[in-house]
Amino acid sequence: MKNLLSLRSVLIFGGAGFVGSNWASRLLNSTSARVHVFDNLSRRGVEQNLSWLRQHAVAPERLKITVGDIRDAALVAEAVAGASEIYHFAAQVAVTSSLSDPRHDFQVNALGTLNILEAARNSRRQPFILFTSTNKVYGNLRQRQLVLTGRRYCALDEKGVSESEPLDLYSPYGCSKGTADQYVHDYSRIFALPTVVFRMSCIAGPRQFGNEDQGWVAHFVHSALQSKPLTIYGNGRQVRDVLSIDDLMSAFERVRERMEKTAGQIYNVGGGTANSASLVEVIDQIEKITGKKIRFRLERPRLGDQLFYVTDYHKLQKHTGWKPKRNLRQTIQSIYEWAKQEARAAGSLAVRPLTPALLERIPEAAS
Ligand SMILES: NC(=O)c1ccc[n+]([C@@H]2O[C@H](COP(=O)([O-])OP(=O)(O)OC[C@H]3O[C@@H](n4cnc5c(N)ncnc54)[C@H](O)[C@@H]3O)[C@@H](O)[C@H]2O)c1
Questions:
Q1: Is the pTM of this model over 0.85?
Q2: Nearest atom in ligand 1 to 42's CA
């Protein structure tokens, strides 16, 4: 009989969200891991991701769902006790909300993360922990020399941002994520937990309920499909690199497989120069793909917004061989296909949102 402890037992905090539900689906469909999704469903729309997971996973019997909050240390400890791997995606994700309620932002992002780390430190399993931090920990990067050429800013040194960039925590969200980022990193040095930190730029793909505050590429595609005008903060020439969710999940796999090299490391993860574009360039691409004209108006830039952020992912590539495979056009296309499917499904109710009655039918959901 296979030793139960040798089975992968994967706990995903924030597992109903965009990154979490895609990762849960990948694990259920292409590995034999048991998957425990832990999420308080606070992000609007994510209950649809849980319905989708239940309905489309190849092995739903390996899926357990806990509707819970990472601020609840006892519930977190209970979930962590059985896990051999932990992916921590649960977060207050928007800079804007962090400005209106910094205390809530801190309690979820900083204290919630400490709850997970403490539970892992007290677990006998020494679980692998991957934490998704953000490029916002590098601040607004205003010291970079930029020129405005045509429809985008360009960096004079043509370099992306590497892990040697000094931390410059900016905005309550930047501070709370940066705090969590440093705690996760330090628990590997001080308590020898095998932790990895990903500092991510924009991730995009299906199952992302993007809005003005977070998930902008998906938000732009949804707005195009619904013929809703957009608001752009700044002149629209600010540049971001975009990474497809499929490439991000390949990066998760690579770092776990090469844990002897990656444990204790911090990696910048993003699409890199080849997948960088300004907001107006992304709008151009969406218009081509969807055939819809996007209307937008310009507003004053938002506090702390970076004019130019492109990831230098060479450290991760050097340690694991990983590099992005999907280009920006393919990523936008994948969101477009999913959004069309969702629109059709909403018409036929093929994917039903999780109502309280449906939740009761998920045995583990009440745990
Ligand atoms: N998507 C991106 O472009 C991006 C970029 C950089 C960093 N990140 C980070 O990656 C992670 C995942 O992002 P995402 O895009 O999947 O976001 P998401 O909002 O889709 O997923 C986050 C999930 O966490 C859950 N959650 C929020 N507060 C919680 C709490 N207190 N307890 C339990 N669950 C809670 C939400 O309900 C949601 O399902 C986040 O930590 C985010 O900061 C994302």
A1: yes
A2: 37
